[in-house]
Amino acid sequence: MAVVELFDNPRPGRDYTITIRAPEFTSVCPKTGQPDFGEIVIEYIPGATCIELKSLKFYLQGYRDKGIFYERLTHDILDDLSGACRPRWMRVTARFSPRGGITTDVQAEYRAEGNSKIKDQNEK
Does residue 87 belong to any structural domain of this protein? Predict the structure, then answer.
């Protein structure tokens, strides 16, 4: 799996949200071996560093031939990215295209310890 590169947050003293969309995400169903198509949405409030997009693209492409359930890959992406850049808050949403008339969305969140001032992004 590719390493996600980072760069210094240009405004580390300010809370702001970065939203990254990867609408051409692919992985493989571990049961059938068929390709799964979806969109990965990464939202985060950066801490000291931000995610460099070219390296993120290569990281996400590492799932292209990987047999993995939606739930697992959503948590793996969150764990990898939050572990790399240590954001104040992060949410990963995986939205998968219909298969057999069923769509699946999986969301997972990370919140830095001691960051009680960061409200749940649904509480606007």
Answer: yes
Provide the domain limits for residue 94: 51-100
Tell me the pLDDT of the chain (124 aa) as tens digits.
789 999 999 999 999 999 999 999 999 999 999 999 999 999 999 999 999 999 999 999 999 999 999 999 999 999 999 999 999 999 999 999 998 899 999 999 999 987 655 555 445 4
> In this structure, which amino acid lies at residue 108?
A
Q: Are 9 and 16 in contact (CB under 8 A)?
A: no
Q: Is 8 a catalytic residue?
A: no
Residue 44: name the closest of 10, 12, 3, 81 by CA. Answer: 81
- As for how many domains the chain has, the answer is 1
Catalytic residue among 8, 15, 29, 120: 29
The answer to whether residue 105 is domain-embedded is: no
123 domain-assigned: no
